[in-house]
Amino acid sequence: MPVDLLFIGGALYACGIDGHLKAFLKALKKEDVKRAAVFFTSWISRHALSLIKSSLTEAGIPVAEESFYSKGRPDGRQLQEVEAFTKKLL
Ligand SMILES: Cc1cc2nc3c(=O)[nH]c(=O)nc-3n(C[C@H](O)[C@H](O)[C@H](O)COP(=O)(O)O)c2cc1C
Q: Which residues in the chain come in under a pLDDT of 50?
């Protein structure tokens, strides 16, 4: 039974995403997930978004237009924002 909405994301390290996340994305099939929403963190670059999005798209998984970005680990205010982001998409 597919997941209705998968929230998936991670950070950027030396211009790439973590190997575990990469492997997880590679293993995902469109039969597993109806729709995905992406969150990501970094110091500066927003490249993680396109890396994660392209992997999902290649697998044929529709990706929500909206994504969530945090510069570094989310703090109190950003945690409220991420809550609003998830509620909007659910
Ligand atoms: C080893 C390392 C490499 C990183 N490389 C980049 C990078 O190339 N570009 C960038 O914008 N941020 C980079 N960052 C910042 C991380 O993406 C950011 O701190 C992220 O929030 C880390 O999440 P974590 O604390 O959950 O691991 C790097 C951080 C570390 C520790």
A: none
Q: How many helices (H) and strands (E) does the chain have?
A: 3, 4
* Ligand 1 atom at minimum distance from 11 CA: 17
Q: Which domains does the chain have, with CATH numbers?
A: 6-89 (3.40.50.360)
Distance 49 CA to ligand 1 centre (A): 13
Report percent pLDDT > 70 for the chain.
Answer: 100
- Taking the CA of residue 70 as reference, the ligand 1 atom at the shortest distance is 21
d(CA 83, CA 47): 23
